[in-house]
Automatic annotation (TrEMBL):
SUPFAM superfamilies per record: beta-beta-alpha zinc fingers, Ribonuclease H-like
Protein name (database record): BED-type domain-containing protein
Keywords: Metal-binding, Transcription, Transcription regulation, Zinc, Zinc-finger
Membrane-crossing segments per the record: none
Residue stretches making up the BED-type domain: 73-139
Biological classification of the source: Eukaryota, Viridiplantae, Streptophyta, Embryophyta, Tracheophyta
InterPro entries for the chain: RNaseH-like_sf (IPR012337), Znf_BED (IPR003656), ZnF_BED_domain_contain (IPR052035), Znf_C2H2_sf (IPR036236)
Ranges of compositional bias, category Low complexity: 55-66
GO terms of molecular function: DNA binding; zinc ion binding
Polar residues: compositionally biased ranges: 1-11
Domain of life: Eukaryota
Region feature Disordered, mapped onto this chain: 1-20, 37-74
Length: 354
């Protein structure tokens, strides 16, 4: 008898009835999920008349109340910022609106209308903008010890990445490398995101256009400009003609700027040199401001200046327009002297070793 009581106590501790109680069919229904389980009222008596199918009636009631209907989860990411609003229309529960979690503004949210208007609201939500600005703001120390509010701006970071690539001659794909991202996020800014090479290419073009426009505006207040031009070969075995400007700005400071690097993939004759120098000067509007042009002491450069004289003589005339590079002249003098002294140097070298 004691063993039976112990067994019944274990059953009751697990939530079942003991052998000394009635209603074993209900226990079986709990274990096996029978749809024919008898629904008991609080007093343990069956509801309705015996054999009347109260289980199906309960299921129908549950269906009418909507408790068994499961909503399909929304897949758009925009619902992370919105609460869905449902209403019962013609006995069917439908989504009719959406409420912004940040500013609490109510918008239409029917499934047939899409989510484009919700995405646009997120981009202009004033409450969300202010929160993001506060989250991205940090205190930064000034050189004098004071502090000011610093805000991380991705467009500024991308512009500075272009400057870094240009100054150090880095590969244009460095912004999308895992190593560079790890370095920046770990040591400097954890909110930095990768920048693809396509985006960096567009940023380069945009940055160049902006800086060029600023420089052209600066040159409007310059009275005269001295140019230096030379031809050099790049790493890809391609020749470029460089044009460098020297001038005094509005603050009476001497400045040196590279105006252009033009590919010269043809003969380095006077016509091709003059054509490329002229194109750079015209692009910056300096036709009537050229004070002097310094070139190497080569015959092709001399003939190129003869072709440039009618175009560039508007400011100072053609008398002092062509300036020959002093360093190149000294280099030619030294080479000629060494050529004359080469035999003497050979004899001195032999005597030294003897």
């Amino acid at each position: 008898m004691a063993a039976d009581n112990s067994y019944n106590n274990e059953l009751r501790s697990m939530g079942f009835r003991g052998d000394d109680e009635d209603g074993l069919a209900a226990d079986a229904a709990e274990l096996f999920g029978s749809n024919a389980a008898i629904d008991l009222d609080p007093e343990g008596l069956p509801q309705g008349t015996p054999g009347s199918g109260t289980g199906s009636a309960s299921t129908a009631a549950a269906t009418e109340s909507g408790t068994t209907r499961k909503r399909r989860a929304s897949t758009s990411k925009v619902w992370k910022d919105f609460d869905e609003i449902y209403e019962v229309i013609d006995g069917k529960e439908c989504r009719t609106g959406a409420r912004c979690k940040h500013c609490k503004k109510k918008l239409t949210g029917k499934s047939t209308h899409g989510t484009g208007h919700l995405k646009r609201h997120i981009s202009i939500c004033s409450v969300l903008k202010s929160r993001n600005a506060m989250a991205q703001s940090q205190l930064k120390f000034n050189p004098d010890g004071s502090v000011h509010l610093w805000e991380y701006k991705p467009e500024v970071a991308r512009t500075q990445l272009c400057r870094l690539i240009a100054r150090l001659d880095l590969p244009i794909c460095i912004g999308e490398s895992d190593a560079f991202e790890e370095y920046i996020t770990t040591a400097h800014n954890p909110r930095f995101a990768k920048v693809s090479r396509q985006t960096t290419t567009r940023d380069f073009a945009k940055y160049f256009t902006e800086r060029r426009a600023q420089f052209v505006e600066c040159l409007k207040y310059v009275s005269s400009v001295a140019l230096i031009s030379d031809i050099w070969s790049g790493n890809a075995k391609e020749d470029y003609l460089s044009v460098v400007a020297h001038f005094v700005n509005a603050d009476w400071q001497l400045e040196k700027r590279i105006l252009g690097l033009r590919l010269i993939d043809m003969s380095h004759n006077a016509e091709n040199i003059a054509k490329r120098i002229t194109s750079v000067i015209v692009d910056y509007g300096l036709t009537d401001k050229i004070f002097a042009v310094t070139l190497d002491n080569a015959a092709a450069n001399t003939r190129a200046i003869n072709q440039l004289n009618p175009v560039l003589s508007g400011y100072v005339g053609s008398l002092f327009l062509h300036q020959r590079c002093a360093c190149h002249i000294i280099n030619l003098i030294v080479k000629a002297a060494l050529k004359c002294l080469s035999q003497c140097l050979v004899h001195l070298d032999l005597l030294y070793h003897f």
